Amino acid sequence: LSKRLAQPYLKEWVEVNHEARACAMLVDEQRLSHATRVSCAVGGACAMAVIFNAPFGGLLYMFEEVTSVAWPLELTFRVFVATMCCSLLSYGLCYLNNSEMEELVIYAEKPADKEWEWRDIPVFIAVAALLGVI
User: Of 53, 48, 43, which Cα lies nearest the Cα of 108?
Assistant: First the structure.
C-alpha cells in the first residue's frame, strides 16, 4: 500500500549492491517535502472543520496559518473536498452513535455526561484496525 502511495514520488530504482541484488528507491526530496506540507495543511483543516463544525472555517484557518505565499492554488480545492468529507463523516458517526453534533463540538453549551459502554469496544477495535492498515 505504501509503495503505491509513494509511486508518484519515486525517482528511479537503483541497484545498490550488485552481489546481493538489493534494490533501493531514491525519492525526490523536494516533491516529498511538498507532499508533507500539503498533507499537514489538509489534515489541520480537517481537524478544525470537525472540532468546530465549520468546514469553511477549517479552510480559511489553514489558509491563514500557511500564508497565501506558500499556498498552492490546487490545494484550495483539495482542502475544500477534504473538509466537506470530514464534516459528512462526523455527522455520519454522530448519527450512528445516536448523538447530536452539538455534543461533539468543542464549544458545546451543555457538556454531555455520557460514559462509554461495552458495545462501543468492537467499534473502537474496528476503527483502530482500519487505521492501522492504512
Answer: 53
Query: pTM of this prediction?
Result: 0.58
How many Cα neighbours within 13 Å face the side chain of 28? 11
- H or E element: which one contains 67? none
pLDDT digits (tens, 9 = 90+) for 77-129: 888 899 999 989 988 888 888 887 777 666 656 666 677 788 888 988 999 99
Q: Kindly give, in sequence order, each residue whose CB lies less than 8 Å from that of residue 62, ignoring residues fewer than 6 positions away.
A: 41, 44, 45, 48, 79
Residue bearing cell 517535502? 33
DSSP assigned state of 17:
E
Q: What's the CA angle centered on 80, arms 7 and 104, to 5 degrees?
A: 110
Residue in the block written with cell 478544525: 48
Q: Is the dihedral of CA 77, 62, 56, 88 positive or negative?
A: positive
For residue 14, what is the DSSP state? Answer: E
pLDDT, tens digit (0-9, with 9 covering 90-100), for 59-82: 888 888 887 667 778 888 888 899
Retrieve residue 78's grid coordinates.
483539495
